């Protein structure tokens, strides 16, 4: 089963409904069950055959591939057999996604927080967010369908708070020219940096009034009634690609997950779903011996999953919530489509590893933005979602949910520059009241102008240099030797 070169193994992937448990073949586009309307997970019916190979040999293979030169296996498909082992080499789309680093916290940050922690910088993916993991898999599948079925054209559509649209538009621009990219965004709810990405990739961008959930309902209607490729996390192929996050964390830590806890923003619940599913696969095949603990994090402004798990187990009932403005924009979702996946996988996760291995914590907006600033002012490149995870870690410590010996891996889902406008709003004190954020002097930073343009115009070059240098000397408090 294990050979050099592109893998010979092929799986038998089928859509498995989490509602009525019916199955459908994996060679057609499905998003929800035609029978009951619930969401799918893709399951490989040949997966038990992978157990014929020891965990030790799988580890050696994946480690060897990390240094390999086969383009199709350099990214998320380094873990081909565990993700979507139905593609040929020509099917796989690779734009440099995956293999993002885990950066351990600076000493100052670690001492400030009181916990050993690290950030997984998924903003170092091609479109600057973790969404590229899922898109690489989804577009590999979609391109294969277009080629095999000889479709004239297919519309690839998504609703987004920014990162999904950027990723979908990028991969669509690279893929088969018969794939047309369309994204629906909530007007005024996407940063200018994020909006520039799908526009720059040539996608048709349509803005709607409301929030992400409103855009998602429109996209779901189109997917249910027309031949379009839905690229949100309802797409089970995206979940498979995002499982690579779990595989990379385990490999980075040399396959030892003892005393490790992962903090993940919940948002639409696709990523936390994928991460749990990925770790369960690794445990089942013997690549790891224990499952890491998982902490989902939600802002108080968008916390339906937190509210669900606050209820007594026998009384739990899920209800969507009306969201309020959040700096963790990608997580500002009141009705996550992947919640049924979270519920099912969390139950399995705790059956395998025990109670307390899955948790959800709620954090305040003030804590999210200030945690982002705290991380970045201590040498990291953390987005607001990464700030949400750091806030979640500190909240878990307050609740005495963390062991002092545990390593916390925090998911920084996107690049910090995507959310620089929130940093500017904090520094300038210009957050609208709905955010519930009041800046503190200890975090505020702004440029200091020491000479005006008018003053410069009156000086010679030599006079300007001396005058500017003297002002800098005073600002810095420098003393001559």
Would you write up a description of this structure?
With 481 residues, the protein is of the alpha/beta class. Among the domains are: 102-127 and 239-435, Rossmann fold (3-Layer(aba) Sandwich); 452-481, no CATH class. The chain has helices at residues 55-65, 107-113, 131-149, 163-174, 192-200, 212-225, 236-242, 244-252, 270-285, 304-310, 339-353, 365-376, 384-398, 420-428, 453-457, 461-476, and strands at 13-17, 23-25, 40-44, 102-104, 116-121, 154-159, 179-186, 204-208, 228-230, 260-265, 293-299, 358-363, 407-412. A hairpin with a 5-residue loop joins strand 1 (13-17) and strand 2 (23-25). Helix 3 (131-149) crosses helix 7 (236-242) and helix 12 packs across helix 13. The radius of gyration is 24 Å and the shape is globular. It starts with 12 loop residues before the first strand and ends in a 5-residue tail after the last helix. The model has no long low-confidence stretch (mean pLDDT 95).
What does this entry show, briefly?
With 481 residues, the chain is an alpha/beta fold.
**At the first level of CATH, what is the class of one domain?**
Alpha Beta
CATH topology category name of one domain: Rossmann fold
- Structural class estimated from helices and strands: alpha/beta
Q: Mean of residue pLDDT?
A: 95
Q: Main beta sheet: strand number and arrangement?
A: 6 strands, mixed
- The radius of gyration computed from the alpha-carbon positions, rounded to a whole number of angstroms, is 24 Å
């Amino acid at each position: 089963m294990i050979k050099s070169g592109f893998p010979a193994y092929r799986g038998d992937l089928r859509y498995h409904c989490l509602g009525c448990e019916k199955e459908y073949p994996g060679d057609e586009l499905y998003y929800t069950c035609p029978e009951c309307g619930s969401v799918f997970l893709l399951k490989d019916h040949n997966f038990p055959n992978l157990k014929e190979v020891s965990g030790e040999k799988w580890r050696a293979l994946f480690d060897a591939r990390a240094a390999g030169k086969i383009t199709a296996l350099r990214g998320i498909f380094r873990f081909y057999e565990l993700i979507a082992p139905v593609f040929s080499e020509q099917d796989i789309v690779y734009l440099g996604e995956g293999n993002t680093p885990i950066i351990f916290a600076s000493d100052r940050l670690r001492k400030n927080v009181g916990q050993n922690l690290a950030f997984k910088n998924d903003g170092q993916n091609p479109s600057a967010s973790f969404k590229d993991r899922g898109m690489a898999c989804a577009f590999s599948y979609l391109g294969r369908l277009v080629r095999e079925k000889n479709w004239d054209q297919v519309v690839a559509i998504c609703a987004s708070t920014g990162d999904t649209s950027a990723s979908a538009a990028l991969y669509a621009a690279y893929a088969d020219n018969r794939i047309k990219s369309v994204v629906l965004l909530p007007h005024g709810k996407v940063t200018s940096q994020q909006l520039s990405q799908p526009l720059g990739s040539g996608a048709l961008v349509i803005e709607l009034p409301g929030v992400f959930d409103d855009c998602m309902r429109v996209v779901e209607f189109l997917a249910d009634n027309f031949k379009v490729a839905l690229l949100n996390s309802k797409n089970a192929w995206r979940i498979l690609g995002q499982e690579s996050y779990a595989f990379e964390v385990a490999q980075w830590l040399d396959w030892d997950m003892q005393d490790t806890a992962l903090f993940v923003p919940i948002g639409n619940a696709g990523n936390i779903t994928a991460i749990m599913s990925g770790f369960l696969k690794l445990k089942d095949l013997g690549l790891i011996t224990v499952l890491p603990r998982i902490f989902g994090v939600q802002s108080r402004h968008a916390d339906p999953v937190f509210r669900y798990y606050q209820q007594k187990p026998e009384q739990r009932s899920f209800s969507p919530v009306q969201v309020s403005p959040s700096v963790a924009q990608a997580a500002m979702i009141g009705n996550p489509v992947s919640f049924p996946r979270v519920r099912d996988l969390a139950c399995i996760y705790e059956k395998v590893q025990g109670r307390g291995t899955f948790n959800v914590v709620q954090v305040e907006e003030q804590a999210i933005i200030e945690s982002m600033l705290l991380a970045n002012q201590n040498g990291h490149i953390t987005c607001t979602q990464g700030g949400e995870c750091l806030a979640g870690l500190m909240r878990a410590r307050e609740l005495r949910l963390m062991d002092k010996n545990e390593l916390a891996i925090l998911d920084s889902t996107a690049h910090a520059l995507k959310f620089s406008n929130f940093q500017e709003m904090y520094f300038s004190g210009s957050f609208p009241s709905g955010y519930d954020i009041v800046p503190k002097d200890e975090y505020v930073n702004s440029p200091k102008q020491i000479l005006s343009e008018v003053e410069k115009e009156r000086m010679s070059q030599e006079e300007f240099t001396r005058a500017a240098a003297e002002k800098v000397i005073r600002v810095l408090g420098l003393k001559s030797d």
